[in-house]
Design brief:
This protein has about 325 residues and is of the alpha/beta class. The chain is about 30% helix and about 15% strand. The chain has helices spanning about 10-15, 70-75, 115-125, 140-150, 180-185, 215-220, 225-235, 265-275, 300-315; strands at about 50-55, 95-100, 130-135, 155-160, 195-200, 210-215, 240-245, 280-285. The protein is globular. It comes from Paracoccus rhizosphaerae.
């Protein structure tokens, strides 16, 4: 296929016959599945299921991350034509990737959402696929991690974020985007000794043993030193990656609920993600994209790139 195929290809989300390969329909038209992958609920033979959880409940400042999955999918249309630059291989040629669509839930039953997320991700994993989740606020990562740990045991975590999200919260009924990691550690589903948070730039009195590589250290020490420390911490453990888009400086991602200056540049985030090649990645998410606060679409573009990089990490050990 080539770009000239746009003359005849459209709505590849529904019309493509296979699960591999690039797509060449016009970026500005057609059904906007993630990377123009096939929309399907059939998980048979699937390696990676991209799914959306359009849920936000009580973010610190600016709501709207429920629109994140839709915006990320639309932004990903710009990336469907080519393999991700610099990887040296095309993950869509070695992985069967689908868009599993969004998780269904009753918006008036907030307390029921975490259980639905856990079951949703669990079904993906039980079918043998790796989940890549588009959020939604950061509260969604806790039930995702519950599903992961139920199948893989306590995992190592790489968190890209401006906030450590380990503020104390011992109320099991609270759904809070800022305490997911506190609860995950307290519940024994994340091993803090094998976990690292990158890009942090807000104070927190207790990070519960998670290694903190704050934004200032990344700027000062550089990407290579940061990656060396990450690999030292996680070792060869199975690892989950969660990427809060506010890990990026607001100059690169203004459309988020909790922007904090002094963050990672997009090139740093790209280099850090790419430098993780070879890790035993279980799955990942990108959260907190809030399109109403970024009319340029830059934040959604960043979120789409993060999701593509996660897919490339999943395919790295299978490449020819």
């Amino acid at each position: 296929m080539a770009l000239e195929d746009a003359k005849t290809q459209v709505d590849q989300a529904f019309t493509r016959r296979d699960l591999r390969g690039l797509s060449f329909e016009n970026a500005f038209g057609g059904a906007t599945s993630f990377l123009r992958r096939r929309y399907t609920k059939d998980l048979a033979g699937v390696d990676v299921a991209v799914t959306g959880v359009p849920f936000d409940q009580a973010v610190t400042h600016r709501p709207g991350t429920r629109f994140g999955p839709r915006a990320i999918r639309e932004a990903s249309a710009l990336q469907a034509f080519d393999a991700p630059y610099g990887w040296g291989y095309d993950p869509l040629s070695v992985l069967d990737v689908i868009d599993y669509g969004d998780m269904a839930f009753d918006y008036a039953d907030t307390r029921g959402v975490p259980g639905r997320i856990e079951a949703h991700i669990g079904a993906i994993m039980d079918a043998g696929a790796a989940p890549i989740t588009l959020g939604g606020d950061h509260s969604i990562t806790l039930p995702i991690l519950r599903a992961v740990a139920a199948r893989r045991g306590p995992v190592a975590l790489i968190q890209f974020d401006a906030h450590s999200d380990t503020w104390a919260d011992d109320d099991p009924d609270r759904i809070d985007h800022g305490t997911f990691l506190y609860k995950a550690i307290r519940q024994g589903i994340v091993d803090p000794a094998a976990s690292v948070s990158i890009g942090i730039r807000t104070d927190n009195p207790d990070t519960l043993g998670v290694s903190i590589l704050d934004a200032a250290s990344v700027h000062r020490d550089g990407v290579a030193a940061t990656l060396a420390r990450v690999r030292e911490v996680i070792g060869d453990r199975p690892v989950y990656v969660t990427f809060d888009i506010d890990a990026l400086d607001p100059a690169f991602a203004p459309g988020t609920g909790t922007p904090v200056w002094g963050g990672l540049a997009s090139w740093q985030a790209a280099a850090l993600l790419r430098g993780l090649a070879g890790i035993d990645l279980i799955g990942g998410d990108v959260v907190e994209v809030s399109p109403p606060y970024d009319p340029t679409g830059a934040t959604a573009i960043a979120g789409a790139h993060v999701a593509v990089e996660l897919i490339a990490l999943l395919g790295w050990n299978r490449r020819g």
